[in-house]
Amino acid sequence: MESENSDLVVHAVIGRLFEEPEPTHRADLADGAIAQGMAANRRRGFAVAGATLSVLAVVAGAATVAGGRGGGSWSLGTESANVSPQSYEDAGPTYADRQREIAEQLPGVLGPLLPAGMTVRRDPQIGNDSKSFLTGDFSPAFAVESGGTEYVLQIIGGESGAAEAFAKASVKPVAVTGGSIRMTVPSGDSTKGPVYYEFTPTDAAAPPVRFAVFGFRTPTPFDSSPIDATAFKKMVEAPGFAKLRQLLDPSAKASAAAVRKRYTIEAKINAEAGTVLPPGFRLKLSPGAPGELELVGPDGVNAFQWHSLTGAEDQIKCPAEALCFVPSDGPGFQKMGPDGKARLGVYAGWVGKSTDSSVTLSVFGKPQTFTSMTFPDVLEIGKPVETAPQGPGLTPQEARAIIEAPGLPKVIADVQKLVALT
Question: Cys staple from 180: which of 112, 169, 173, 259, with CB 3.0 to 4.6 Å?
Answer without folding.
Answer: 173
